[in-house]
């Protein structure tokens, strides 16, 4: 899988959100892998790129309550995605490293909030300070801290909750 080339600086008006399809699996996987590598270089890689693509293709996209992607209006390059699991869990929200600080994450979060039945919960790795600050700015509150025993990476995490 390749990099993105030169980043285009479009405001959020140059970005559209839509429901994900199975055809988005490779691009979603690339965003997932690149975002994690850039934001959390300390995180253990527990799956190959191929296994991650299979998981996105056969588990995340077809079985989640909702998956939304953000893409450039011109060219259709995928910039990020968000996943709602069940009625109230934000399971994933990832952006390409060159798509940060453009309001795209906030738009994806708003989409998930609109689809959730009431509040939302999510887990964030404790060391992921940027993600924690993002969710706290959006009204999420840390309600529990875990030693990492609940995730594959064995990385301590935080449970956040948001209520409308």
Strand content: 25-35%
Our Rg estimate from Cα atoms comes to 15 Å
Query: Count the helices. How many?
Result: 4
C-alpha geometry:
globular
Q: Give the name of the CATH architecture.
A: 3-Layer(aba) Sandwich
Quickly count the domains: 1
CATH class: Alpha Beta
**CATH superfamily grouping:** Gcn5-related N-acetyltransferase (GNAT)
Return residue spans where pLDDT drops below 50 for at least 5 consecutive residues.
Answer: 1-10
Pattern of helices and strands: EHHEEEHEHEE
Arrangement of strands in the largest sheet = 1-2-3-4
Main sheet characteristics: 4 strands, antiparallel
Secondary structure: helix percent: 25-40%
Structural key phrases:
single chain; 164 residues; alpha+beta; Aminopeptidase; three-stranded antiparallel sheet; 4 helices; 31% helix; disordered N terminus
What does this structure look like?
- This protein is an alpha+beta fold and 164 residues long.
- It has one domain: 3-Layer(aba) Sandwich (Aminopeptidase), CATH 3.40.630.
- Helices cover 31% and strands 27% of the residues.
- It has helices at residues 25-39, 49-63, 104-115, 129-137, and strands spanning 15-19, 66-72, 78-85, 89-95, 120-125, 141-146, 157-162.
- The protein has a four-stranded antiparallel β-sheet with strand order 1-2-3-4, with helices on both faces. The chain has a three-stranded antiparallel β-sheet with strand order 5-7-6, with helices on one face.
- A hairpin with a 3-residue loop joins strand 3 and strand 4 (89-95).
- Helix 1 crosses helix 2.
- The protein is globular and about 40 Å long.
- The N and C termini lie far apart (39 Å).
């Amino acid at each position: 899988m390749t990099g993105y080339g030169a980043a285009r600086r479009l405001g959020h008006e140059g970005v559209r959100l839509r429901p994900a399809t199975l055809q988005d699996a490779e691009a979603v996987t690339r965003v997932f892998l690149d975002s994690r590598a850039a934001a959390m270089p300390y995180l253990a890689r527990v799956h190959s790129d191929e296994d991650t693509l299979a998981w996105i293709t056969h588990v995340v996209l077809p079985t989640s309550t909702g998956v939304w992607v953000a893409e450039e209006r011109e060219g259709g390059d995928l910039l990020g995605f968000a996943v709602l699991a069940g009625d109230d869990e934000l399971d994933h929200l990832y952006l390409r490293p060159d798509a940060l600080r453009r309001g795209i994450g906030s738009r994806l979060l708003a989409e998930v909030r609109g689809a959730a039945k009431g509040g939302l919960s999510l887990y964030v790795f404790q060391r992921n300070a940027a993600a924690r600050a993002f969710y706290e700015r959006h009204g999420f509150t840390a309600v529990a801290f875990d030693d990492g025993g609940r995730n594959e990476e064995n990385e301590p995490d935080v449970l956040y909750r948001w209520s409308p």
